[in-house]
Specification:
Number of domains: 3
CATH topology of the largest domain: Trna Endonuclease, Chain: A, domain 1
Strand content: 15-25%
Strand order of the largest sheet: 1-2-3-5-6
Number of helices: 13
Structural class: alpha+beta
Oligomer: single chain
Order of helices and strands: HHHHHHHHHHHEEEEHEEHEEEEE
Largest sheet: 5 strands, mixed
CATH class of the largest domain: Alpha Beta
Distance between the termini: 35 Å
Shape: globular
Number of strands: 11
Length: 294
């Protein structure tokens, strides 16, 4: 389904349901694959509805805003009102939201995106997980015991090698970087200009189409605006790096681009003549984008 076909489908659906004030997610699902191609071409329902000239609800409008902007909004609102934002503050905000959207936010977007307003506020204040503080405190400690079966596991060897490559690249690009020697769901910590970043490293052998597994428990506890996923893609010719912000990976999961299993999310990355793709979505804009870590 091409971009203009998505717009056409939305217009037809709105005309068919003109007795309704807004199109809902349930309405969108009534058209096969429409939800999927909305994400491919527009990323959010709000963006797609705007392109089609179809009215959107307050929630759909707020859903068109990136996770990063939502967290920035909470910071700005906190600074404006002088205390931690509550539902009442968001619902009665008449000023700060205009920096990020033409319509007022619904507080429910924080429940949808971050499993609640409290979690979103913790992320916005960079005190989201105790594991991050633990990682920062132990990153300089010497690892006393090496795993005895390190060289017995090809997968583990590749994973450790990928982490070392990422650490080396970060150093080359001006970061102070080190491997995190404890299992807190994050692999590498880096500092630049007094700002700390955290990285989850995943490697992928492009000679097969196996999925990259993201453990649910690890993904949920290590999220935030300062977290990036780095996919190290291995081929016979070279090694490539995809640098993807956490909130983008979260969007993949939210709309079903990443497949959800009982304990994991599965990400299928492939390479063709057009470059790197996740299903029909081009990932080329994330290729070697070390300068976007900021």
């Amino acid at each position: 389904m091409q971009k203009d076909e998505v717009v056409s489908n939305l217009k037809e659906l709105a005309n068919k349901l003109k007795h309704k004030k807004y199109l809902t997610a349930q309405d969108i699902r009534s058209v096969p694959k429409l939800k999927y191609y909305i994400f491919v071409h527009f990323r959010t329902l709000g963006n797609a509805l705007n392109a089609a000239g179809v009215p959107s609800s307050k929630l759909a409008s707020s859903m068109s805003i990136s996770n990063e902007d939502l967290l920035s909004y909470l910071k700005d609102l906190h600074n404006e009102i002088g205390h931690t934002p509550k539902v009442w503050d968001i619902e009665h905000d008449s000023k700060v939201y205009k920096k990020y959207a033409s319509k007022k936010f619904s507080w429910k977007v924080f429940k949808t995106r971050f499993n609640g307003l409290k979690k979103a506020i913790e992320l916005s204040e960079n005190k989201d997980v105790k594991s991050k503080r633990d990682a920062a405190s132990v990153v300089t400690k010497k690892v006393s015991d090496e795993d005895q079966d390190f060289f017995q596991s090809k997968r583990k060897f590749w994973g450790r090698a990928a982490e070392l490559h990422v650490t080396a690249e970060l150093l080359y690009h001006g970061f102070q970087a080190a491997n995190i020697p404890v299992d807190v769901g994050l692999d590498v910590l880096a500092v630049k200009k007094n700002k700390t970043f955290y990285f989850q490293v995943k490697h992928k052998d492009l000679s097969n189409y196996d999925a990259i597994k993201l453990t649910k428990s690890s993904f949920d506890r290590s999220g935030g605006g300062d977290v990036y996923y780095i996919f190290v893609l291995l081929s016979e010719e070279r090694r490539n790096f995809l640098i993807v912000p956490y909130h983008i990976v979260n969007d993949w999961i939210r709309v079903g681009i990443a497949e959800e299993k009982e304990n994991d999310y599965l990400v299928y990355i492939k390479k063709d003549s057009d470059g790197f793709k996740l299903k029909d979505i081009s990932l080329n804009k994330y290729l070697e984008r070390w300068e976007d870590i900021k």
